[in-house]
Every structure is written in structure tokens, then in C-alpha cells.
């Protein structure tokens, strides 16, 4: 079993095998996450899917405060290294690496990726995490893509963390298709309702998922769940 805590937007802390993995920390600039103190967030690893501000805003501070290892693609990892992050591990699409929490694979995403200062963030991606008790997919920001079917061929996913906010990423209909493509019936929604552009009808999203026989989990900010 793993514990997953939601910090808003696309930010999740996942505890696996005694290790804490923080994905795409955008907390302090998010008004909806004002009750969350980043000083209290401790991570062993900080994983960044792509370079946009709403996915990297708190990464430097949390990484340094926690003495965590930052994992992302080569361009983003190198950018943070120049900002004084001492522990980092660069990856790229299709590559995998075994860490003490399990095996991590950096997989395709279709999305732009520019860092806050205008530097190139390389190619956006997502992560598949294999651990002793299971496997899950963190999609990052992405459109629906047939490449997702490769994940079903390679992995047995327990759940997928998928964007559902539409406009900049998949909406709920494409997220349901993505769940089919990757071979899971359990979706944890992210990247919705933070900004006006991605505000959605939550009841309609839940209904669409139910009709497709998918479990759609929408966590409150600060809420934890055991999976």
C-alpha cells in the first residue's frame, strides 16, 4: 500500500517503501492551497514532469530544505543544478532507473515546456513508478496519445494520475480514453479548477467516469488516501 497526499493542481506527495516522492510542486502561488505550508513538506525525491511555472514553483525551495534529489529531464535537471540544487538526476523519454523506492521510467507526454525564465524545458514527460507492491502512472500535462497504449503493454498499472481540466491538457473524456489506453479503471484527477481556464463541471466529470465504469478520485487539497 502507498499513501498519496494532494497539495492542489498537479502536486502530489506519494509515500512508498518509507520514501517520499513529491510530484510537480506548485503550492505557494496557488491561492487554493493557501492552507498548505511548504516548510512542513519533506521529500526524498522531487519529480518534475515539465518546466512550466505551475509545476516547478516550489521545487527549488523544497528540494534544498529536504536535501532531496530532483528528478526530471536533462534540461530541467540542469537548470535546477545551476540554481544550486546539488542532488539531481537527469532522465529522458524512454529511459528508466532503479532508485531505493523502486523503478522509475520517464515516458512521453505531448505538451509544451518552458521554464519560468524563458529557458527551454526540453520535452515534457510523465513518470511510471514500479514499486514492491504495485505500479502507477503520473501523466504530467499531456494530450491523449496512442503512445499510452505502450504502457498497458509494459506495465500493470494500479491507477493513473491524469489531467482532466481540458483547455491546456486532456479533458475528462480524453482522460477516460487514456485510462483505457494504459489499462486501468482508476483515475486520480489533477490539473483542474486552479485557474478559470481549467474550471470544470465536477459532477459532469464524475458522471462521465461512472458511465465509462471508471473510478474517478478527486481529492481535496491537503487530503490523503491510501491505495
Protein described:
- It comes from Belliella baltica (strain DSM 15883 / CIP 108006 / LMG 21964 / BA134).
- Residues 8-191 form the Metallo-beta-lactamase domain.
- Keywords: Hydrolase.
- GO terms for molecular function: hydrolase activity.
- The protein is built from 6 helices and 14 strands.
- The chain has 227 residues and is of the alpha/beta class.
- The chain has a single domain, classed as Ribonuclease Z/Hydroxyacylglutathione hydrolase-like (Metallo-beta-lactamase, Chain A, 4-Layer Sandwich), CATH 3.60.15.10.
- The strands form 2 sheets. The protein has a 7-stranded mixed beta sheet, covered by helices on one side. Strands 7-8-9-10-11-12-13 form a 7-stranded mixed beta sheet, covered by helices on one side.
- Strand 2 (12-16) and strand 3 (19-23) form a beta hairpin.
- The longest helix has 11 residues, at 172-182.
- The radius of gyration is 16 Å and the shape is globular.
Amino acid at each position: 500500500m502507498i499513501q498519496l497526499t494532494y497539495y492542489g493542481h498537479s502536486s502530489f506527495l506519494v509515500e512508498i517503501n518509507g520514501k517520499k516522492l513529491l510530484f510537480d510542486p506548485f503550492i505557494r502561488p496557488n491561492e487554493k492551497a493557501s492552507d498548505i505550508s511548504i516548510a512542513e513538506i519533506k521529500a526524498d525525491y522531487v519529480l518534475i514532469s515539465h518546466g512550466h511555472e505551475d509545476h516547478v514553483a516550489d521545487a527549488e525551495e523544497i528540494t534544498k530544505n529536504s536535501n532531496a534529489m530532483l528528478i526530471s529531464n536533462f534540461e530541467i535537471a540542469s537548470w535546477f543544478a545551476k540554481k544550486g540544487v546539488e542532488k539531481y538526476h537527469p532522465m529522458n523519454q524512454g529511459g528508466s532507473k532503479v532508485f531505493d523506492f523502486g523503478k522509475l521510467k520517464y515516458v512521453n507526454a505531448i505538451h509544451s515546456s518552458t521554464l519560468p525564465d524563458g529557458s527551454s524545458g526540453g520535452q515534457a514527460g510523465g513518470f511510471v513508478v514500479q514499486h514492491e507492491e504495485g505500479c502507477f502512472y503520473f501523466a504530467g500535462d499531456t494530450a491523449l496519445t496512442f503512445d499510452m497504449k505502450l504502457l498497458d503493454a509494459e506495465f500493470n498499472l494500479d491507477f493513473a494520475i491524469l489531467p482532466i481540466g481540458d483547455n491546456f491538457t486532456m479533458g475528462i473524456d480524453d482522460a477516460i480514453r487514456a485510462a483505457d489506453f494504459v489499462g486501468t479503471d482508476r483515475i486520480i484527477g489533477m490539473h483542474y479548477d486552479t485557474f478559470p481556464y481549467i474550471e470544470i463541471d465536477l459532477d459532469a466529470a464524475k458522471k462521465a467516469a461512472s458511465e465509462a465504469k471508471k473510478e474517478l478520485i478527486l481529492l481535496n487539497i491537503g487530503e490523503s488516501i491510501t491505495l
